[in-house]
Amino acid sequence: MRVVQVGVGGFGKYRRDRMRETGLFELVAAYALNPAALAAAQQEDGAKPVGSFAELLDQPGIEALIISTGAKFHAEQALAALERGLHVFVEKPLCATPAEVQALLAAQKKTGLVVGVGHSDHRHDAVSLTIQRLIADGTLGTIATFEKTTAHNGGLLIKPGDWRGDPEKNPGGMLFQCGVHALHELMFYFGPITDVFAQMRYDVHTTLTADVACCVLRFASGLIGTLNAYHVTPYRHTFHLFGTKANLYRDDRFFDEGVKLALQVTHLDGKKEPHQPVTVTGTSDPCGNLRSFYDAVRHGGTPYPSLLDGARTVQVVFAAEESAKTGRLTPVQPL
Question: What per-residue confidence (pLDDT) applies to 116?
Fold first, then answer.
């Protein structure tokens, strides 16, 4: 598939690496504000550097636009591509406002073009499938609740003028930046989120965005659980599932340390309940979302993650910020 890409450094480099790994994409041209990143894309992928976003969309014979810019730009760039008849693969978070969600959904419906979103492909992730199996086969019993935390120190690096410090473009702070990954994963296991109650703190760092977000989520199934997102602390990603038969603990180690899973089985006779390591079976495909996008363009159907998947995650963020401002349980607006 002949594609062009906007944003090729930072996470854009990761996306280029994954496209190259699949062998399914030819990166024809690229546009970015970073000259060094453009030079790397040319050297590594043969992508022609261009001088503007408009020039990027004018490249002949292309089928899709890959968007790896900040979320501030996602909606505008995706809409421009759809209007030009191009399929779109856009990183998460999908977009920054409810109005942008509606505009993207309307444009996709009008054009019938494929929109894939760069959330993790949990259908081809060994850890996610292991967790899903333990939920489904009754090992954990009835799921009572969960606790999920996503945190890193990126908020401390936000400088004046950075869009990440703008509450209009980065609603919920870390909840928007990384919490959407957690929301997408939670909905993979448990289905739609219907309501959220959230409290946020804005005074830890110097930006106007939320430094801390503590959310209670309610699902259509009746399940409730907590998601906490911190933008001003050292790295921590954990997921704890509490069931009537056992608890499951996931600890995502930083970078190359991998993922640790442990089970703690309920004993009603007063015995100790030690943690038991869980073996993750199967293989993971970090390129699964790109392969799904490619297949949807070539053969029809809906990619995973889809535009709707991306929209559902940011809808929860928008509801959480409204809840923090009003102090009320807030429904997640249906799509």
Answer: 98
* Spatial CA neighbour of 241 closest among 316, 312, 142: 142
Tokens representing residue 322 in the block: 């409204």
Query: Rounded to whole angstroms, how far apart are CA atoms 215 and 205?
Result: 20
Is this model's pTM higher than 0.85 or not? yes
The residue among 283, 286, 267 whose CA lies nearest residue 275 is: 267
Q: Where are the beta strands (DSSP E) in the chain?
A: 2-6, 26-31, 48-49, 64-67, 87-90, 115-117, 143-151, 193-201, 212-219, 224-230, 236-243, 246-252, 259-265, 275-277, 330-331
Residue-wise pLDDT tens digits, 54-71: 999 999 999 999 999 999
Mean pLDDT, rounded, for 252-268: 87
The confidence score (pLDDT) of residue 159 equals 85
Instruction: Provide φ and ψ at 20, rounded to 5°.
Output: -65, -40
| DSSP string for 109-174 | HHH---EEE-S--GGG-HHHHHHHHHHHTTTT-SEEEEEEEEE-SGGGG--TT-GGG-TTTSTTTH
Query: Which pLDDT score is estimated for 72?
Result: 94
In tens, the pLDDT along 301-318 reads 999 999 999 999 999 999
Q: Tokens 């600890």 sit at which residue?
A: 251
> From CA 83, how far away is CA 68, in angstroms rounded?
19
Longest dimension (CA), the chain: 71
161 φψ region: left (φ > 0), alpha (ψ -120 to 50), beta (else) = left
Helix axes 98-111, 71-83, angle to 10 degrees: 20
